[in-house]
Each structure stands twice: as C-alpha cells, then as structure tokens.
Amino acid sequence: MATFISVPLKKSSEVDLVKPLSKFVTASYPAAEEQGEYLRAVEELNKLRKNALGRPLDKHESSLEIILRYYDQLCAVEPKFPFSENQLCLTFTWKDAFDKGSLFSGSAKLALASLGYEKTCVLFNVAALASQIAAEQNLDNDEGLKAAAKFYQLASGAFGHIKDTVLSALNREPTGDISPETVGALSLIMLAQAQEVFFLKATSDKMKDAVIAKLANQAADFYGDAFKQCQYKDNLSKEVLPVLAAKHCIMQANAELHQSILAKQKKRFGEEIARLQHAAELVKTVASRYDEYVSVKDLSDKINRALTAAKKDNDFIYHDRVPEVKDLDHIGKAALVKATAITPPLSQKFTDLFEKMVPMAVQQSMSIYNQRKAETVNRLVGTMREATNLCNGVLASLNLPAALEDLSGDSIPQSIAEKARSIVQQGGLQSIEQLIKDLPELLTRNREILDESLKMLDDEETTDNELRTKFNQRWSRTPSGDLYKPLRTEGANFRNILDKAVQADQVVKDRYNTHCDMITLLCKPENELNAAIPSANPTRTLQGSEVVNVLRSQLAQLDEIKKERETLEGEIKAVTFDMCTTFLTALAQDGAINEEQLSLAQLDQLYSAYNQRVQANLRSQEELLGQVQTSHQEFSSLKQSNTEANQREEVLKKLAAAHDSYVEISSNLREETFHFCLWGFFVRQGFQNKCSDIVFARKTERDELLKYLQQSIAREPSAPSFNVPAYQSTPAAPAGGPTPAPRSVFVSSQTLNTWTL
C-alpha cells in the first residue's frame, strides 16, 4: 500500500488591490491611454487574486495553473510598483496552515505590509496544491506516475525556495508553517516521495534489480533525512513522523529485497538470505508499530516467501554461510529526482498584465534624470534672463531708447508709449495686485495640507510607541519612527520650500511698492501720462547726427541679441530624448542602472552646443553694452543740458524701470502662482495620500497584531510572558536514523491513503 503525505493550503483574508494601485497609476501615469490600460490591468490583477485565493480549489492541474499565474504576476509586478511600508502600502493577512486554533483564541495568523510575504504565502500554496495533486494520481499507470513525480518535485522546489528567501522577504519572524525549518522539512518529504514514485515506476517497468535497489535505497535515505528534520517540529500533524519512519523502513526493505535477487543471480546464496532476513525484520517493525498508517502485508508476504525458498535451497543444496548484516556490502544509491527550480514564469499561460509599465528602478532613474534635465534647462534659461534684466537695467539707467526718441522734449517717447500700452494690456495694477493677494492664500493652504499630513504621522507614531512600551519585545513590527523617516524628510523639504516662498513673496512686494507710483502713471490715459512728464527745451539739432545713428544701430543689435535669446530659450525647453530606453537597456544588460553616469553623459550631449551658443550670446551683449555706454557719453555731452531736461530724463528712466519691474514681477508671480497651485495638487495627491495610505495600513496592521497578541495570551493564561516557539530552538540532531514512533490511533483501509499535514 502506498501512503503519501500532502500539505494543506494557507488561507488569506480578502485584500482590495484596486484602490491603492489605481491611486498610484492615476498619480504616476497622467496620459489617458496608458492610464486606462493600467487601471484595467489592476482590475484583472484583483480578479486573479480572488480566483487564486478567494475560493476552494480542486485538486487538479487547472487549479494549480491559476495559482501559478497569480504568483508569476506578483513577481512581474513587484519591480514596477513601489511596494513598501512607507510608499505603496498593502497589508496581507494569512493564517498558519497547520495551526487549527482553539475555541477561544482562533488560529494563528500574521498581517504584514509586504509583497514578499504575499509571494511567499502564494508559493506555499503552489507547493501545497502540487503535493495534493500528486497524491491524487493513479500510480498504476505511467501517466499517473510521471505526473506524481513532476508535482512532488515542483512542491519540493517551491518549499526549498521559501526556505532560502522567507527571512529576507519578511524581515521579521514568520509563522511556523513558513519558517525555514518547517518548509525545509517539507521540501525533503516531497523529494523523498518523488524518489519513491521513481522506484515504483522502475518496478512497474521491470527494470534491473540493481537499479531498483539503488532507487529504493536513495528513497530510504531521503525519508531518513526528512524524519530527522521533522523530529522536533511539533507544529506538524501527528501522522507525519510515523509515516516517515515507516517509509524509511519500507524503502530499505525493498532495497534489500532487490539486492537479494542480484545476490542470488551471482550465486551468493548466503548474502541472499541475510538481505531477506534484514528486509523481513524491517517490515515486521513497520507492521508492529505503524500498521495504523501503512500496510506492508503484500510486501511482507513477498519477502517471507522468498526467504523461505532461499533457506530451503541453501539448507538442502548450497550450504552457503549466511553473513551478518553489518558485513554486507552497502547498497548503492541513485537519485533520479531534483527539486524544481523556481524561476518565474512558472505558468505556461502567463502574460504580464503590466507588460508596458517600466520597472521602478527605471521610473526612479527617470525621475532623477528629469530633475537633472530641469536643473540644466533652468540654469541656461536663468542665465539668459539675468542677461536680459542686466541689459534692460543698463538701458533704463541711460534712458535709452527714450532719450533718442525724445529729441523734441515735449511728447511721449515711442518706447514709453509702447511700455504703457503693454502694461494696460496685461491688466495693469489690478492684475498684479490680485496676484500678490492670491499667493499668500495659496501658501497658507499648502502649509495647512502639510501640517495635516504630518499630524497623521505624529498621532499614529504616538500610538505605536505607547503599544511598544506596553508589550515590549512582543510588539515586533517596525517602529513607526523608523518607517516615517523618508516621509518626514520629504515633509521637511516641502516646509523649506514654503518658507523660502514666503521670503520671496516679501521681496516681490517690496519691489512692487518701490515702483508702484510709476506703474500707476503708466496705466493712465496718454494725455495724463504726457502731462505728468516734465517738458524740456528741444534738442532738435541732434536729430540725424552720427552719434544718434550709431546709438540706434547699437540698440537694434541689442534687440537682435535679446530675440536670439528668446529663440534659444524655446529651443532649449523643447529638447527631448527617450532616456527610458537607455535605462531599460542598461537594466537588461547589467542588471542595474548607473543613473548618474548615463544621465550626465546624455545631458552633456544634448545641451553642450546650446551652452556654447548662450555663452557666445552673452559675450556679444557684454561687448555691445560697452559700446552703447561709450556712445551714450558722447551723446550726453552734445545734448543741451538744463534743469527741465534733467527732470524729464529722470522721470523717463523711472517709467522705463517701472515697466521692466512690472513685467518681471508679473511673470514671477504668475509662475509662482501656477507652481504653488500645481505643487499644492502634488502635496494633496502625493504626499498627503502617501501619509494617509501608510497610516491606514499601519492601523490595520496594528489591529491585527493586537488581536494576535490577545489570542496568544488567551492560549497561555497562566504564562504572562511569551515562550520561545519550538521552531526557534535548534536541538541537536540524533546520531542515527529514525527511531520507531509511538503507536497512534489512526484507521486506514484504502488502497491509497493520503494524509494532510
């Protein structure tokens, strides 16, 4: 009778994947087409989890395929979303597969905000279901034998993978069923059962007895190793140790039986009898101690018949000496099984729902690259704008070009008239005063959002600290203070931006107050503006002079230089490059991204030519401004100077400076208003949502941990302190093989018995 061990599935609580993942997709992918595609993929992922974990599964390969697809999708999606306790926080709750619980405390379970934990538990179910499917196979035909061997090896590989990765995936002590010791023992059990299936296949195919003996002896060795691993695992079912001990003896007996046939063929009749006697003793031990679990009647009859015949022939014919068992040659071993390597995708039908979404490593590199690019663009554009402001300031101080247009001394210079019309078209005083009024309100609202977000963190951290003080080391989750460090750093950066904005806002107000009177004058009708400008004696004699023509030519060249800068600014802002492909290629080739090296090299290639053009433009302006100042000195010496002329020129200078200040202040205020509107949106949608999401997840985790601690205390009412779990101790392994297990009551009379751990 063949008896095989299978493993129960873990059970998980329902988790809403749609809301947090959709929120991340909406915030990260504003493009309507790709956003819609990813949102649909999120819905499919949620359905996939429900199909894999939210309903009973048949012991069939089609059910295993569903779990494999979900596991493969978890592996594929892990690098594409920022799953962590302080970013995209999803809490998964799983029950211990072997803990049946009690009437008052329920079964043990663990809730963790870790995708690695979810992957580990899903892979456990892959192994468990594979063991159940293997145990259901009909071992009387080749197809069933091959399927059983395949699924046992898959189960062994999955349990072994968990053993190697569970501690790093969870970063905390796992439940007993997925502890390295437990899954390591389960992996050995599955491997032993796979080897036994190969033994059954070789027996069915009537292979050579030497081969069958080696296969059986290897299976016995595997069962012995598994028994040693399970001796101190009190979380497994009571049937496990007796079955493993029985299997160890049965496989040894089969190895001796087939090796005895080989000895008979070589006419070593004494060895034949010794091996059959040893085999008979082994099955007798099984029959006397483990008969409730495993039936060895057929095997015992076969061995006894062979032993009786061998003794009879030896007594009457051969008279060969029967050696001691310890003097017999060791039977060889042949391992035909190997734990299946867990290398996703495991499903033959897997298709990545988020195939087009780039990994987080690329997203993070793209974010840093975009910051570097923005800094490069801002530096070049800022340099050009500073040059323009410098040029305007120098010309305003020289009253140019108004001085050339004001040779009559009694009309509004054309440039001043154009400046006045420009201010009126932009909304005049009302527009700029409204902007100055709106900005502090935006800053105040953004500060309130920031304060609300940080208060959520503060309140949750206070609660966490109080519970940590109450439960001491039993409060085993990550301290909130450590978890919130990145968010607090981000919040400090936001607050620093707000503080600087307040300071800048005051600078803008002071500058506006300085030029307010002249801006008001520029907003008046033309006749009132003309009346407000002092008249002066005419200087018509300078009209058409060489120095005037030279100055006008130089001013025209300055205008061309400024226009060139405007064109350059547009070109610089329009530069694009598909850096994502570069990062993806680097990740595929090297397994990592050297963002700094790749970004700096590409930015240098993109902007070095523009930088040279900007510098050439600035040198041209500097040279030309020097020429303008020289020409203006000559022009000033030729002008007829008097008090009225000086007063008029001073007013015209102030009007020109007021216009330039208006344009700059208005532009800065509009940019700041837009920036802080957008920044406030990102604070609400990004920082505030991250804070609320992580606080919600931490509260859920807190409630689960509190419930778990209360259940633990209920289980041990007389022991206020927690005992160290058995799986955390490492007792010395026994020196020998498995020892007979105590008799247990378990009735089985079927041809194929399967126990669930």
Automatic annotation (TrEMBL):
CDD domains: BRO1_Alix, V_Alix
Gene3D superfamilies noted in UniProt: alix/aip1 in complex with the ypdl late domain (1.20.120.560), alix/aip1 like domains (1.20.140.50)
Bilayer-crossing regions: none
Subcellular locations according to the entry: Midbody, Midbody ring
Coiled-coil regions listed in the entry: 551-578
One of the protein's GO biological processes: mitotic cytokinesis
BRO1 domain location: 3-395
Signal peptide: none
Chain spans, region Disordered: 720-744
Pfam families: ALIX_LYPXL_bnd, BRO1
Keywords: Coiled coil
PROSITE patterns: BRO1 (PS51180)
Example of a GO cellular component annotation carried by this entry: Flemming body
Name of protein: Programmed cell death 6-interacting protein
Organism the protein comes from: Amphiprion percula (Orange clownfish)
